[in-house]
Amino acid sequence: MTIRMQIALPTEAPARRSLLEMDQAQLADYLAGLGQPRFRARQVWEWIYKRFAGDFATMSNLPKDLRTRLAAEATIAPLTLVTEIVSQDRDTVKTLFQLHDGQTIEAVLMLYDERRTLCISSQAGCAMGCTFCATAQGGLARNLTPGEIVAQVLYFARYLADPTLPPATVVTRPTSVTNIVLMGMGEPLHNYANVWAALHRLTDADAFGLGARHITLSTVGLAPGIDRMADEDLQIGLAVSLHAPNDELRTQLVPVNKGYPVDEVLAAVRRYIAKTNRRVTFEYALMAGINDTPALAQELAGKLQGMLCHVNLIPLNPIPDSKYQPTSDADAARFAQILREAGIPTTVRLRRGIEINAGCGQLRRAVNKAAQPGAVTIG
Ligand code: SF4
């Protein structure tokens, strides 16, 4: 599929005060500083988190002069849309957003029968250096703030709630975000405090209010972060990107494996399961001729024996010019079969949005390559 888009990377905008960085008390203090009564904070809070306002102008129960002042000095939508692409079958929407300092991040909405799953970013870029990943190529620019993480969800909450907003995908019920995966750009456990602050906002019944069990955090295997996660009160799901069952191969694919080898990661996962009694997902991106042989499937099955886990096999979303290519359907099925025969629950995930650069970091890479303003063809 080919989509023509106008791509014009906006220039850096002056930072306005993002209300998404504030909790309710901080918002009340801020509004009190503008001479407003305490109840205004509640009104603004509900506009943001319950009615998904993207613009102060829509806050009809606020005095007009307050709306004008807020629009001049604050923001509730700190992401500027750069590019938005809808897949041919209209079930995947990928967006590239620019942050106030010019950094760009991606988010992907996937529409399933009963689920509206949103894949969001936790960092601008990533420091983990996975050799098959487009995001890794630019390194880490910076951590996202809690408000920038939450803003990705609010953007799509607005979109799902209002079918007149672009893109013109026909969204049937449910018209709300039902699941979130922190599986976009960045390593969430490398930005722990901000990610957790965002997760509290997203799960707080008084804010966005999504059940923690509907959220999954995906890590490349930072063992201390997994241990820390096990002690959190929120029941956020854990997914670990394993991609190989032994250190020799995994270090080639996931360089951070040098610091956290396979057995150390799996030991942390075992401790996590013992503490939380929650099933862990292992993500395994299948790459033809690299990590998809029957012998490696056997080795993986041996490592995961007896664990409360599930393996999600994902044929790789290939990056142009990369030596890594996706495994064939037949080889993916064979790999899955070996795991299942060993008693490991396994699924082969559908690749979503290959034609719209839906793999992590791929849209940003394509847009940066075509950075001159004007019409660009991506596909
Ligand atoms: S795969 Fe994930 S952890 Fe690895 S470099 Fe890409 S974004 Fe970072």
Task: Provide an overview of this structure.
There is one protein chain. By secondary structure, the protein is of the alpha/beta class. It has 2 domains: about 15-75, DNA polymerase, domain 1 (Orthogonal Bundle), CATH 1.10.150.530; about 110-355, Aldolase class I (TIM Barrel), CATH 3.20.20. The chain has helices spanning about 25-35, 40-50, 65-75, 145-160, 190-205, 225-230, 245-255, 260-275, 295-305, 330-340, 360-370; strands spanning about 5, 15-20, 75, 80-85, 90-100, 105-110, 115-120, 125, 140-145, 180, 215-220, 235-240, 280-285, 310-315, 345-350, 375-379. The strands form 4 sheets. The protein has a 10-stranded mixed sheet, sandwiched between helices. A two-stranded antiparallel sheet has the order 1-16. β5 and β6 (about 105-110) form a beta hairpin. It starts with a strand and ends with a strand. Residues about 370-379 have low confidence and may be disordered.
